[in-house]
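Final report, results section. Input specification for complex C-07:
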Amino acid sequence: MDPVRRPRGRPRKPVLLEPAAGLGPRLGLHDQAAQRLRALIVEGTLPAGGALVETELSAALGISRTPLREALKLLAVEGLVELRPNRSPRVAELRRDAVSALFEAIATIERGAAELAALRITAAELERLRQLQAEMEAHHAAGDLSSYFALNQQIHALIVAAARNGPLREAHEALHARAEIARRRALDSRARWDESVAEHRAILAALEARDPASAGRLLADHVGHTGTALLAGLAEADAEPDAA
Amino acid sequence: MDPVRRPRGRPRKPVLLEPAAGLGPRLGLHDQAAQRLRALIVEGTLPAGGALVETELSAALGISRTPLREALKLLAVEGLVELRPNRSPRVAELRRDAVSALFEAIATIERGAAELAALRITAAELERLRQLQAEMEAHHAAGDLSSYFALNQQIHALIVAAARNGPLREAHEALHARAEIARRRALDSRARWDESVAEHRAILAALEARDPASAGRLLADHVGHTGTALLAGLAEADAEPDAA
DNA sequence: TTGGCATTAATTGCATGCAGAGCACGAAAA
DNA sequence: TTTTCGTGCTCTGCATGCAATTAATGCCAA
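Structure output:
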């Protein structure tokens, strides 16, 4: 017969998914695809409202449609993708009121997390928080905005983790990606920066004092303020669309 | 050639999924499968810890493995199913501490929802709540426990819906299925019943008074009490396993 | 020109086939 | 007897093929 047996199964050369190969316990292609797509959506490479055609995407990612479809379903549960029957999925659009609701939800969850964290956080975690806070203030002083954002995110994640509550943490993570989209689209509002750093200091103090009510209220307010500032930043960005 | 053309695509006779055909805007098989599996898991037909073999399940549901796999992924995100690489997925087990964390999370979310609901609930929704409360008290008086549970669930869902916050509602729904599993496994503790009805009355009053702080606190405490009672019921149920 | 209908092209949804990972069972070695 | 390795089987993971649905286009009639 044909001496060259063309393999029908796994081809040898995926395209865009290799970089993740060295790290973990070898995730399935669908998980890798989900992560990759999440990143592409959050960073705006896949524009909001854009149609996600299965054949195009699967070709771009170097995988077949099956794992891609599984990944899209996951992202739909997270709210990053909108699935319509018999039609191409679309990257979810983030309307103004949705951003508002999103930050309300995050504030609710982080308040609960902060209250629990005030009771359960370990000395080591507190030490880590202090360290992150110090770094954040250094970046603030240096005017390094993007490092500030990264640290800000780490701090919030650490507080939620310190609550030792799996379901709460999962809910928080799911909402976080969507909030990140909004954050990227808004104009920098450095006006809020000073305030935010100060609020973080107060939250840290409340956690050190192991005061659940204060920690919860301060963190919820902080998130609320962030949401408000972000909405303003979005309004500005929409007003002058040339400033991409 | 062969006059009998065996159709490779969609066969004509699904098996277990027909009943849902008359209702909605025709969901895909994967969504139907997800709903069906969710129900089977919650009601305990698929026992906790049991392996979910794709070929068996797909045959039982009358669908192929592809949509089944998609459904399993969704349930994994909801935490009802545990996915292990290259192994059969298992129905997630609910350990004691997980139940505790679950109710903490639900309490957190419902507190936030109640606070928002106190500000946003409409007169019509309030009226509906009063009506549900009256029905619930009637079932209570009549000793009809299962109707009481159903109404209890409706009331909680209505309060969350009245908060007008999509992300919060989604997070709540995801957690609810898992809580329902625990509820089904615990022994009836009618001792808590009277207390629970009274707490519901107080929550309704706080919403009518449009008092966010009270509504939030009362609802969170109510959920906390429910969780504690449920843990006790689970401990009893584990102690005498013959009382299935 | 415009409205309605048939036809075609594009794309999703589902079924199935193939390759490899993991587990069980059993034989051989210690 | 216990341990280790090998062999086979079962099951998942992924790729691909077929059918059905939808949107797009052109055609005809009003």
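Chain A has nine helices and two strands. Strands of chain A lie at 81-82, 90-91. This concludes the modelling results for the funded period.
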